[in-house]
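seq:
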Amino acid sequence: MLKKTQSLFYGWWIVIASFILLVITGGTALYGFTAFFNPISAEMKWGSAAISFAFSLRSIEGGLFQPLIGLFVERIGIRKCIFTGIAIMGFSLFLLSRMTSLATFYIGFVLLSLGFSMAAGIPQYTAVANWFKKRRSLALGLLTTGWGVSGLMTPIIALLIQSAGWRQTMLILGPFILAIGIPLSFVIRDRPETYGMQADGVKAEGDPVISAYVHEEGLEFTLKQSLKTRTFWMLLLYAFCVQFAFSTIPVQEMPHLINVGISEKLAALAMAGYSLASLVGRLFISWLGDTYSKKRLLIVSAAMQAIGFFIYAHISQAWMIIPFILLYGPGFGATVPLLPAIQADYFGIRSFASIRGVLSIAISVPGIIAPVFAGWIFDHYHSYTIAFQIYAVLAALGIPVLMMIPIKKK
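struct:
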């Protein structure tokens, strides 16, 4: 017969380990890197567009390698993928601390981005999707709070840079990531079936009824089959629309706010505040996703992102940071767990990693274009406003795109 495990379901340990991995990797390679922007520019005498191009290279790397990382996860295993990514991140931070030219900066940053892609994102989403079914949306929401909490590393990194310099800060972050990330990679397990369990902690004891619990109610799609559906392409287009706004925040959040007269300290705290506000979306809205239509929740989140980012584009006083944080933070925060959750609802978990890898192209392409275009606008007009207005409109276009997806019956 089927029974629940008596101790804490191991899937929750995977969520905890994955959460910490997202915090340290995202805090360093994603949110925290905005603190390096101005110090590197000042020392190396590089313009905004030149430095922003490194972030575009990261997105090019993501566009090329995310689908391959999805296949790597399915063929080689989640743990090996994370371990390799952590090792690459540690090495790349050492390389970046020694850079003396744009070429070295670009090479080091691409390596950092490759390690980041392998260590965080698809591997954790795949593991959690495998270990949870009925509570998948909540589990993914808890996992992705790691991205939100990682923003808290931004003011810490900024303080380290002020006291020790940006090169020494990178030398500190490398061993830090290795010391925490490598042990945590060994906590991750691919599938519960290997340990005599099924999703959500149901323990198998030879009862044939287990098969009724294992299989999803819908079809288990392969990557090839998913590519033939309208739902796949609408999810990809939605991710594309909302990603333009987000792609500029880790790069140009502090430069934008400082440029409009906000202090450097408050700009760093704004990043932390935005990250904390995103927890509302990652936790509360994702929790609602286990009960209510994920499609409708994503429509609400798209509207919040569009309005919030439009406010961000026109910030001229410190108080205007608050409505930006309260709208855009939860709006984008909800998107992060709901997209992989709705993917699993429509396509199952048989090819979750490879499907996720291809969908990630929609995240990578805006990341290539958005930071450099915004940097180019700033270099010519001394303001990011025009670029950010465009990105707010693109986020709003995600609403009609989502309306073209059929509602999944529970």
